[in-house]
Design brief:
The complex is a heterodimer of chains A (about 160) and B (about 425). Chain A has 8 helices and 7 strands. By secondary structure, chain A is α/β, with parallel strands linked by helices. The longest helix of chain A is centred in the last third of the chain and has 11 residues, at about 150-160. Chain B has a 5-stranded parallel β-sheet with strand order 4-3-2-5-6. In chain B, helix 6 (about 175-185) links the parallel strand 8 (about 160-165) and strand 9. Classes of the chains: A alpha/beta (about 160), B alpha/beta (about 425). The interface between A and B is large, with 43 and 55 residues.
Chain lengths: ~160, ~425
């Protein structure tokens, strides 16, 4: 059962993974402190497959890739936000953390709601309330990048063909 | 159709005559940068490409500055990964402690980043180099790794926003920091999301390079992809003595397209203070007057340059820091520290009761050397005041320029510098 964890606007990368834990970079270490300064109990309570739902400008601040790595390693299946800061957006796609942009879904989901996300179609279903939403499609180039499995395989393929 | 300076740099590096906002391009990079936090993650990703060397060992910069001098064993291990990679790949631009500085102060000072360059850096404040008329943007470690392997990166050409400052008649002590805080206060922390912020007008042209670096440094705090200023005589004077390779000057066309143009009267902008917990929570210093503080931090990639230290030292000279205040000074580079020392500014600050550190990002990101306890409050010339940024999640950071920071260190509470010293 995928549960929604709700956060507000402008959740910055210091809240997602405070710098005091960035003297190390192992994913499991980062996951243990994921979202700590926004919700100190999150890392302990989050279950594999849960969803983060947040307001505008999610992931603003630092360029630390540790932020999407921490979220992914914590077991979060996807992030749904009204909008994303640009470096976080690139980083999430590069490391394979699914992110969806859908202001309507953010409005229509409350903390604890059971939510199902179909990553291929972008369909978001709030099972608790019986409502569905459609995430904004990714631009064609980003779809290509996602299809390749992230930036590393995409670039490797390009290097092979060069 | 005319192009902005950002569009021209991107087009030139993509090998095309014209680019338009929204277009995705692949472009050649002049510099790919990482530090001791983002570098080790990038190196791990780099190894996945299966290549045995970087695209160009002269175009990669690795700067151990965040947790250095290494604060503990894990951070020492991170720095070691960076150092060993630099050695193995024969990276030209790697600096050891004693020569290193805060990345965004060091690279311009050393002439490694130059006008017209296209730069990606695995640090969000990479946008600082826009002050030289370069297109520089922060990326994550994987983008950085791909850049190190291929010398290329993909970009979405950003829309440009223009910020014009009319008049060079700034109020006393107003600096680049106040202008950028003022802008962020107006447009918000996502007001320039995905966009290029271009700063222009006779107000900007009157500013020194140190002030221009401060402005471009904080473009990311409005969500921007970059901050950029057209090179002029002041830029060229700065670059002339430092550049060891060719560079190119780009300027925006008179008919370039901007998504929006914001115009300000320089004389109307008061000294700024950003309240917790976002840089957009700006007020005038008079509205912040009287707020008690525990710690003052002067330095960082935002305000750790020579002029910043000069302003602070001249206010502190002959005075005493409030007995209950810790005042920490972080010069941007060894060269800055040395020059400040030769000018007597370090002596003035130490005599006033400040502590002067080796260059490091240190407390700005809550890394080390000046962490706040629960309930403590800092006034800092740094760039972010997010929850927990400088230490305990229940501590607070207020942002300001070096003059306000120095004056407030003397008073023990936030204060306009005129309350402590005469101007000039």
């Amino acid at each position: 059962m995928a549960k929604a964890w709700k956060f507000g606007h402008d959740i910055d990368t210091d809240a997602i993974i405070p710098a005091r834990y960035m003297n190390r970079s192992e994913p499991e270490h980062l996951a243990a402190h994921c979202m700590e300064d926004a919700d100190a109990s999150f890392a302990k309570k989050v279950q594999k497959g849960d969803i983060i739902v947040a307001g505008k400008n999610f992931g603003c601040g630092s360029s630390r890739e540790h932020a999407p790595i921490a979220i992914k390693a914590a077991g979060v299946k996807a992030v749904i936000a009204e909008s994303y800061a640009r470096i976080f957006y690139r980083n999430a796609l590069n490391i394979g953390l699914p992110i969806l942009e859908c202001p309507e879904a953010v409005q229509g989901i409350e903390a604890g709601d059971e939510v199902e996300v179909d990553l291929a179609s972008g369909k978001i279903e709030n099972k608790t309330k019986g409502t569905t939403f459609q995430a904004r499609p990714f631009p064609p180039f980003m779809q290509e990048l996602i299809k390749a499995g992230g930036l590393v395989p995409y670039v490797k393929e390009k290097m092979k063909n060069a | 159709m005319g192009m902005t300076i950002s569009e021209k740099i991107l087009a030139a590096h993509a090998g095309v005559d014209q680019v338009v906002p929204g277009e995705i391009i692949n472009a050649k990079l002049d510099i790919v940068h990482a530090n001791d936090v983002t570098g080790p993650v990038a190196i791990k990703e780099f190894e996945k490409f299966g290549v045995d060397k970087v695209f160009d060992k002269e175009k990669i910069t690795l700067v151990p500055d965040h947790f250095t001098p290494n604060k503990d064993i894990p951070s020492a291990e991170q720095s070691k990964i960076l150092k060993e990679f630099a050695k193995k790949m024969e990276i030209k631009h790697y600096w050891e402690i004693g020569r290193v500085g805060i990345e965004h102060c060091l690279l311009p000072e050393q002439g490694v980043v130059l006008p017209g360059d296209l730069i990606i850096g695995a640090d969000s404040h990479t946008c600082t180099y826009g002050a030289l008329g370069a297109f520089a943007t922060g990326v994550g470690s994987t983008d950085c790794a791909a850049g190190m392997a291929t010398g290329e990166a993909w970009f979405r050409v950003p829309e440009s926003l223009k910020f014009v400052f009319h008049g060079a008649n700034f109020q006393p002590w107003v600096s680049g920091k106040d202008l950028i805080l003022y802008i962020i206060g107006k447009i918000g922390v996502d007001g320039a999301r995905y966009k290029a912020m271009e700063f222009a007008g006779d107000g900007i042209r009157a500013l020194s390079m140190d002030n221009r670096f401060t402005i471009c440094n904080m473009a990311i705090e409005a969500g921007a992809k970059t901050g950029i200023i057209e090179p002029d005589e002041i830029t060229l004077e700065y670059v002339k003595a430092r550049a060891k390779r060719e560079y190119k000057i780009y300027k925006s066309d008179p008919d370039a397209q901007y998504e929006e143009i914001y115009e300000f009267n320089s004389a109307e902008i008061p000294l700024q203070v950003a309240f917790p917990h976002l840089p957009e929570n700006t007020k005038s210093v008079d509205e912040a007057s009287g707020i008690k503080i525990d710690q003052v931090v002067i330095g960082s990639c935002t305000n750790g340059r020579l002029e910043d230290l000069e302003v602070a030292a001249k206010i502190l000279k002959g005075k005493k820091i409030h007995p209950e205040i810790r005042c920490l000074v972080f010069p941007g580079t060894q060269q800055i520290l040395l020059e400040a020392m030769r000018n007597g500014w370090i002596e003035a600050m130490i005599e006033a009761g400040a502590v002067v550190s080796t260059p490091t990002c240190g407390p700005c990101l809550g890394g080390h050397m000046g962490i706040l306890a629960k309930g403590e409050r800092a006034l800092a010339t740094t760039n972010r005041n997010f929850v927990g940024r400088m230490g305990h999640p229940q501590s607070e950071v207020y942002l300001c320029n070096p003059a306000v920071a120095a004056a407030s260190a003397i008073r023990g509470e936030i204060v306009h510098p005129r309350e402590v010293v005469n101007y000039g």
